[in-house]
Amino acid sequence: MHFDPELLEKLRAARRITIFTGAGVSAESGIPTFRDAQTGLWAQFRAEDLATPEAFRRDPVTVWNWYAWRRKLIRDVLPNPAHLAIVQLERLVEHVIVITQNVDGLHQRAGSSDVIELHGNLLDNLCSECRRSVAEIKDDEVPPTCPYCGGLVRPGVVWFGEALPAQAWERAAEAMDATDVFFCVGTSSLVEPAASLPRHARACGKTVIQINPEVTSHDEIAQYVLRGKAGEVLPALLRAAWPSGS
Ligand code: BV8
Questions:
Q1: In a domain, 92, yes or no
Q2: How many percent of the chain have pLDDT more than 70?
Q3: Residues forming beta bridges with residue 20, ordered by sequence position
Q4: Where are the beta strands (DSSP E) in 29-169?
Q5: Which of 40, 91, 190, 239 has its CA 20 to 30 A from that of 138?
Q6: In this structure, is residue 198 part of a structural domain?
Q7: Model confidence pLDDT, tens digit, residues 171-230
Q8: Helix (H, G, I), strand (E, B), or coil: what is residue 100?
């Protein structure tokens, strides 16, 4: 894989690198991306139609079971070379922050030390009424009920129509503002306000690098478009920029 020498120089000179990721960074771990066709029992549903408060209010059992199915999916998978290359970057660059739209927790499991989860985490649970975090849930209740107020327990993710966690959004905006280089990896850039981050990064004069096997709307805002799979491009890019590995 050949990379523009100017890009490699910018990576080596960077003190702060921000990696904005979407479902594509987990694809090579075997997790279907958000807009991959759903399979099996879930093929009849669109993810966007299930990931809403209205769907949960209307049919909490189906929505809870969809998340239980997704939790099982992520329980059996491992971080892939894309996640691991991002961890290795921390040993090569002074400040590396991951801003992820993903809810699978794989960046943390890979060893990334600073991960901002814009859309929550599939393994967290909270009460849909009192909003308390619920650590222990009973398997025989679908969905479980809150031990504090009896309300229905829901997954700790951000649904469509819900605001992003204020602190996560603030930290992401600060990271974008301070960064030298902004990677946009494995996202269709369709979901707002997350998709506005790469746009703002370019508007603020940051070096924006897009890694995706497909064309997306954000190709034209990136100075560098690296066409390919994250699990192949990221390790190759680090080897090219730091041949000695340090
Ligand atoms: C909000 C958690 C306001 C749940 C998720 C009209 C226009 C613009 C915006 C809107 C609109 N109508 C409504 C909105 C707002 C809405 C939105 O953006 N809708 C979209 C669909 C139009 N946004 C919201 O509702 C947000 N909240 O706006 O609140 C507000 C403010 C104050 C008070 C109240 C309300 C909340 C959005 C959060 C939704 N939750 N996830 C769950 O997971 O169940 S988003 C969901 O989509 C996932 O988190 C996912 O990460 C995210 C984005 O998708 P991608 O990650 O990009 O995944 P996708 O499958 O699309 O793409 C994968 C990419 O990877 C592809 O490009 C593919 O080519 C690439 N790829 C594949 N293989 C590889 C690869 N890349 C690299 N390597 C590979 N191997």
A1: yes
A2: 100
A3: 99, 184
A4: 95-100, 115-117, 120-127, 153-157
A5: 40
A6: yes
A7: 999 999 999 999 999 999 999 999 999 999 999 999 999 999 999 999 999 999 999 999
A8: strand
**Amino acid at position 41, single letter:** L
Spatial separation of the C-alpha atoms in residues 56 and 156, rounded to whole Å: 13
CA distance linking residue 189 with residue 70, whole number of Å: 22
Q: Which residues line ligand 1 (CB under 6 A)?
A: 22-24, 27-28, 33-35, 48, 51, 101-103, 119, 157-163, 186-188, 190-193, 211-214, 216, 229-231
Q: Which residues are catalytic?
A: 119
Torsional class of 185: left (φ above 0), alpha (ψ -120 to 50), beta (otherwise): beta
Overall number of domains in the chain: 1
**190 and 26 Cβ atoms separated by less than 8 Å:** no
For 181, the domain range is: 1-31+79-119+164-246
Residues 102 and 83 sit within 8 Å (Cβ to Cβ): no
For residue 87, the CA-to-ligand 1 centroid distance in Å is 24
Q: C-alpha dihedral over 72, 160, 214, 239, to 10 degrees? A: -60
Smallest CA separation from ligand 1 atom 31, residue: 163
Residue pair 209/201 in contact (Cβ under 8 Å)? The answer is no
Q: Which of 28, 29, 34, 107 to mutate to test the pocket of ligand 1 (most atoms within 8 A of CB)?
A: 34
| Residue of 124, 154, 160, 226 best suited for mutating to test ligand 1, as the one with most atoms within 8 Å of CB | 160
Please indicate, yes or no, if residue 7 is contained in any of the structural domains.
yes
- Token pair, residue 55, equals 């769907």
Instruction: Tell how strand 95-100 and strand 115-117 pair up.
Output: parallel
